[in-house]
């Protein structure tokens, strides 16, 4: 049975580790291990060392290690000599130590163990080769599947983390948007409150304006009535004065007696005495007294006329003052309203 140069080189390099009276370990490599296409010489170690439960150094015949494929397979070639004494009786101590070493290998190294007797691999090589191949393929497949599952898990976790980050970002954006909306609502409420205050103030100013206009109209009406009454009084006073003046001027052209009569009648008319009674009481002393009364009455009428003129002038100035104040107030209200509308538009 021929072997490749790679395997021959490996045997030459590790032959000092495979010392056996019958050279079974070297033969196992040549007839079994080198005939497995899935196994490369670089992945095989002879007399692989490990520690047992008592921290003692132990060794296993062969160890196949290929971390890239997840392969960890220990192979032990056994003969009866390992558990027999010199008289071919079973050495129970050696048998127990063999099992202890096997358990330590499985526990501490964490690998699969295949054990073959010398008779088995020598006379059933194909069975042994196929079993080792199957185990190598199984471990590779299991490892690949585990890697795929791990990759899927990593991808799932990565995808989950990405989606979680997206949700976190979305929540952050929603929170930021909510804060902006809250700020806008606050500003809106401020504007609404400001408009309500402005509306209330405008309504109050409109009420004041209406009251002022009503007061102005009432004052102007009363002033107009007063002027009419004053004009009527002036016309009556003027008519009375004209009558007296006419009588006095006419009396200058008549005789003294006629003058006295006329004067008496005129005086009687002014003081409310009938003409007959005025003529019956005619005397120079009475006439002088009547004349003085007439002069006094004329002076009083003149003084009353001056007072009435002053009062009329005073009312005229008062009405003019009220009109001016009303105009100024209306202008100020209009200015304030325009300014409020301008501020309101600026706020929006």
TrEMBL record:
TM spans (from-to): 311-331
Coiled-coil positions: 129-177
Highest taxon, organism lineage: Bacteria
Source species: Proteus hauseri ATCC 700826
UniProt protein name: DUF559 domain-containing protein
Alphabetically ordered keywords of this record: Coiled coil, Membrane, Transmembrane, Transmembrane helix
């Amino acid at each position: 049975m021929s072997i490749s140069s790679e395997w021959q080189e490996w045997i030459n390099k590790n032959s000092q580790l495979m010392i056996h009276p019958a050279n079974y370990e070297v033969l196992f490599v040549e007839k079994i291990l080198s005939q497995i296409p899935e196994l490369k010489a670089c992945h095989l170690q002879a007399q692989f060392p490990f520690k047992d439960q008592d921290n003692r150094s132990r060794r296993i015949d062969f160890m196949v290690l290929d971390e890239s494929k997840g392969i960890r397979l220990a192979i032990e070639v056994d003969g009866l000599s390992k558990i027999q004494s010199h008289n071919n009786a079973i050495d129970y101590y050696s048998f127990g130590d063999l099992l202890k070493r096997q358990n330590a290998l499985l526990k501490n190294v964490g690998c699969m163990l295949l054990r073959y007797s010398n008779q088995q691999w020598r006379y059933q090589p194909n069975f042994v080769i196929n079993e080792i191949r199957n185990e190598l393929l199984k471990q590779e497949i299991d490892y690949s599947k585990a890697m795929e599952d791990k990759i899927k898990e990593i991808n799932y976790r990565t995808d989950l983390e990405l989606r979680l980050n997206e949700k976190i970002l979305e929540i952050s954006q929603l929170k930021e948007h909510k804060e902006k909306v809250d700020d806008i609502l606050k500003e809106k409420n401020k504007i609404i409150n400001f408009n309500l205050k402005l509306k209330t103030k405008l309504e109050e100013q409109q009420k004041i304006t209406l009251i002022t206009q009503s007061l102005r109209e009432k004052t102007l009406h009363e002033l107009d009535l007063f002027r009419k009454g004053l004009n009527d009084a002036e016309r009556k006073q003027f008519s009375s004065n004209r009558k007296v003046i006419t009588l006095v001027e006419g009396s200058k052209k008549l005789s003294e007696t006629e003058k006295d009569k006329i004067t008496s009648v005129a005086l009687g008319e002014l003081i409310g005495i009938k003409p007959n009674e005025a003529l019956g009481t005619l005397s120079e002393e009475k006439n002088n007294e009547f004349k003085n009364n007439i002069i006094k009455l004329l002076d009083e009428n003149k003084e009353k006329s001056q007072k009435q003129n002053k009062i009329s002038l005073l009312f005229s100035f008062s009405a003019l003052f009220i009109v001016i104040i009303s105009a100024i107030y209306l202008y100020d209200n209009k200015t304030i309203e325009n300014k409020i509308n301008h501020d309101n538009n600026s706020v929006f």
